[in-house]
Recover the amino acids of this structure.
């Protein structure tokens, strides 16, 4: 019997799940749930769409519900609510609030006897795994995380909120020179500015002043003021044509020491080079949905993170096959 | 209370454990066990050495026994024997015999109610983990494993068995051009020769014929005949001076496709750049020793592989710290 999956929220990530679930032979998509009018949703495949208001009617028809909302307002509310009734996964990524979110979700998933995996994806998620693994294998050393080259949704949104901006895309770009130093075992101390640059492609509203907009971007605290930022003004057509993709990626590098006197350099690197961030994230969530399902069959309950998931739970291959082909 | 570790076998790996256990705040080294006369063993630190004949006297004093013997003859015998009495880890790496070894060890560890982790290290081990993870996240695609640049003990030994050879070191070197094609998402079909070259540094016995030795190396089946091999003859002093280190490393690259019609390229890469192979392997085994210990406290029994170990079992950090600092 297939693992029955539901999607709550039909944005980039929800569409990513819809487009990629066909790779998972042991899964089927039961329904997409939306806060919008279901009839207004144009799906990419032939899949049922229902209102989130009816979701509890599917309580016995869905093995894992994948929550595809945003971390700012959707998930802090949705994951605690739905983990009472469904095994769930979310991709909550507000680092400062992860512990609070974990505790909220743990309480409701435990009460509902469900499994709830939070903060899954590639960062937090796979990058977190690699930080943990590499710090366990090289207890003394430095961990460096670089992101990009890729589109940051958060930074693109921040630019769009500036008066005079019609649309924008922002690329986060790792500083090659710093990456090279880290790979070379130099253990540099890197400031925010040393690690990444930011490149912005902006479409102006008619009559807007480009110098004012550029100034507003470059001085924006948290988002841009600590970085070397480049701003390009382009037409709406150019933005559509050249900047519609959502590539991303990055590196987690652990540069550590071993030996009686820390005399030996050892480097572990994990990197992603993604043409589509939401499609890759969707695939990560789908593999972890299998793990959530298996854990629920084993009567595990409560909130979990990727740290709690044994790798063998992610696959539908037999142990024998894994021993023969993968180990 | 500290996790009490024993070492069986005092070669490169055993010394690696001895040199690196000080990084693990929650572990102590109880004793090294040897088949040689304990008095002949010169340790690097102030640690007890005892004969393996007395090892069962330590049954209640050791939480995890790390088996540091070779895969050819030591481990197939030792792991089944000692997993009856101790929680154990080995680094068994004869791929073709892993399933058989797993079954043998599982039977005795289960009978003895112990946990036995087999085939731990970096390949098999961390590279296996990354093959599994990346194939779960990118179900359609190709996985490429490259090794090196590094010293292959097996190939160095094979050269040493040739008549006329006094000593030798062999480096396995990945073919840069092939690695670049893989990273570029070209999904090339690569022969053995396309993936690695082999470079040999050989010290001849007096009077040996270099041309005969070179020919014997280059035509050796399995080890060299399928590769482009370079042979350098050097003096014993040069070998000592320039080739005593044991660097190694390599890459696991998954080049996969996502999307409704497999239209999106996604690349996951994991790489190691190690100045000392045995010291790094030792650190991997030590982290997994912690996991074995924790599992034994949870009454888990039987043979396990790295696939069965949840990442959180490797660390002594609290969940709270992991949520705050690592996720």
């Amino acid at each position: 019997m297939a693992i029955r999956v539901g999607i709550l929220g039909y944005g980039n990530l929800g569409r990513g799940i819809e487009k990629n679930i066909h790779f998972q032979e042991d899964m089927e998509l039961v329904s997409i749930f939306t806060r919008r009018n279901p009839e207004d949703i144009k799906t990419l495949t032939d899949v049922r769409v229902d209102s989130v208001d009816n979701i509890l009617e599917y309580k016995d028809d869905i093995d894992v519900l994948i929550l595809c909302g945003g971390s700012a307002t959707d998930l802090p509310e949705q994951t605690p609510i739905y983990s009472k009734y469904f095994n769930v996964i979310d991709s909550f990524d507000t680092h400062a609030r992860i512990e609070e979110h974990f505790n909220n979700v743990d309480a409701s998933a435990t009460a509902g006897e469900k499994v709830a995996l939070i903060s899954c994806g590639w960062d937090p998620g796979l990058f977190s795994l690699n930080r943990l693994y590499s710090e366990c294998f090289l207890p003394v050393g430095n961990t460096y995380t670089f992101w990009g080259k890729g589109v940051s949704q958060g930074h693109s949104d921040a630019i769009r909120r500036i008066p005079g901006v019609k649309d924008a895309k922002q690329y986060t770009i790792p500083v090659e020179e710093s990456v090279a130093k880290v790979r070379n075992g130099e253990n540099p101390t890197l400031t925010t500015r040393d690690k990444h640059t930011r490149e912005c492609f902006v479409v102006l509203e008619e009559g807007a002043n480009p110098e004012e907009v550029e100034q507003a971007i470059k001085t924006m605290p948290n988002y841009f003021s600590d970085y070397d930022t480049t701003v390009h003004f382009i037409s709406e057509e150019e933005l559509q044509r050249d900047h519609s993709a959502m590539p991303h990626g990055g590196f987690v590098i652990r540069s550590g020491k071993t030996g009686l006197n820390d005399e030996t350099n050892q480097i572990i690197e994990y990197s992603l080079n993604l043409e589509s961030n939401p499609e890759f994230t969707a695939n990560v969530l789908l593999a972890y949905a299998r793990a959530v399902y298996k854990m629920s069959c084993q009567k595990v309950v409560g909130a979990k993170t990727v740290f709690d998931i044994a790798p063998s739970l992610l696959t539908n291959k037999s142990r024998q096959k894994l021993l023969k082909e993968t180990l």
